[in-house]
Amino acid sequence: MRLGIVSGRRRHGKSYLLQALSEAVGGLYVTAIREEGRLPALQRFSEAIAAHAGLRAGALRLADWRDVLTNAFDVVARRARVPLLVIDELPYLLQHSPELPGLIQHLYDSHQRGTGGVGARLILCGSAMSVMHELLSGTKPLRGRAVVDLRLGAFDYRASRSFWDIEDPGTALRVHAVLGGAPGYRPVAGRPAPDAGFDRWLTSTVLDPGRAVYSRTETEYLLREDPRITQHTLYYDVLTAIANGASTPSKVGSALGRQRNTVTHPLDVLESTGYVRREQDILRPRHPVISLADPVIRFNQLITLPQAVAVEQGFAEQVWQTSAPTFNSKILGPHFEDLARDWTRRHAHAVPGPVGTTEVPDPAARTKHEVDVVALAPGERPQSARARIALLGEAKATATRRGVGDLQRLERIRTLLTEQGYQTTGTTLALFSLYGFHPDVQRLAARRDDVLLVDLATLYDITNG
User: Fold this and answer.
1) How many other CB atoms are there within 10 angstroms of residue 463's CB atom?
2) 132, 134, 178, 302: which has the highest count of C-beta atoms within 10 A?
């Protein structure tokens, strides 16, 4: 027997792929339902097994999950090219049938001893990330038994542009900043297409309470997936504080008028679900920076939620017009920086090293320089003294072209790092710009091997002509 675990947040395409896999090999795919109790679930699974076996409806009435599993394995062994059983949304079953992992462990061990019949393939899938990850943790029954533990992520920004069939890279960037790379949003977004005009598309989809992709409804939908999230008001407040710039547990607690220790657990839960991330300074040990990882939640907390009443009364266009500064500074800007780091990891070097951000103290100027993109050389470890630095970059989504002044700032930062003991020989200085570059810095880049200019066409690998 072989066991696989598949997890990932809603709308990443897990069910679509697993159903396609089951159909391709003749396996059995069954999904749990949130509102269903134990007995209805047993009956529905029994009916699915009977249908797969070619039996009439009602021919099977299995009384417990052991019978369900053994009968399912027997049926797929006889009828499938590969004896595959897929149980989707397992966390819903665990709410009323917590014995399932122990039963699967017993069947697995029996199969390994050669006493359990055919070598079945079982895939367990779910959107509640914390529940799925705990299946293989500590002393849990299934620990050490899975040969696959796959966390299905979203499409990257280039794949998203291709999937949405968006011609203009600026529009593709903005759609990705709002919805991320989850492929499940395209079917529910409907018309108009983003290339028809980003503003019109946005007010007709994410800011339309009548659409399934409406961000306020979607955020509630996402948070409900984790059974540990019970105090929705508290979690909403934590997300809003982070969206507005609270970057440490202490700052989050202060924004909510709470002690730091009262927000530690909600932050841990949100991090385990993938909705919040903590990023370490890549050069120096200091407190990690907390930020929102999910674009839909970020958009909701910053744009939709503060003006939900106006949106739901039909004033989406007016809300969007007044929200443009917030979108540009708190959503588009940080998202462009994220994509700059992503591009650096994937495309800047044949063999990538660690990539992140840092703060560089400048004692003479009595200030600190925030660096948007720092790439260490291959083989270097983050926070290592005297590390070799492969790239220093600045990413700007502001509506102005970048020039020699931006390059001089990076040169100053490189000098400071050299003085602080880091190895900067061969360090590339990269400028990432949403609106292009002045001719002066373009001429400099053409003459120097250590200067790299990355515009939208480079970011999206678009060749002219």
Assistant:
1) 6
2) 178
Instruction: Say if CB 282 and CB 355 are below 8 A apart.
Output: yes
CA max distance for the chain: 83
pLDDT value for 43: 95
How many other C-beta atoms lie within 10 A of the C-beta of residue 55? 13
pLDDT tens digits, one per residue of 257-288:
999 899 999 999 999 888 999 999 999 988 88
Average pLDDT value for the chain? 92
Q: Is the confidence at residue 117, as pLDDT, over 80?
A: no
SS3 248: coil
CA distance 11 to 426: 42
If DSSP codes are grouped into helix, strand and coil, which group holds residue 59? coil
* Cβ contacts of 311 within 8 Å, gap of 6 or more: 207, 209, 216, 304, 319
pLDDT band at 118 (very low <50, low <70, confident <90, very high): low
Give the CA distances from residue 415 to residues 197, 374, 382, in Å, rounded to whole numbers and listed in that order. 44, 14, 20
Q: How many residues comprise the chain? A: 465
DSSP letter for 377, please: P
Q: Is the dihedral of CA 196, 199, 203, 205 positive or negative?
A: positive
Q: Phi/psi of residue 195, each to 5°?
A: -65, -15
Kind of pairing between the strands at 2-7 and 121-126: parallel
Q: Cβ atoms within 10 A of the Cβ of 443, count? A: 12
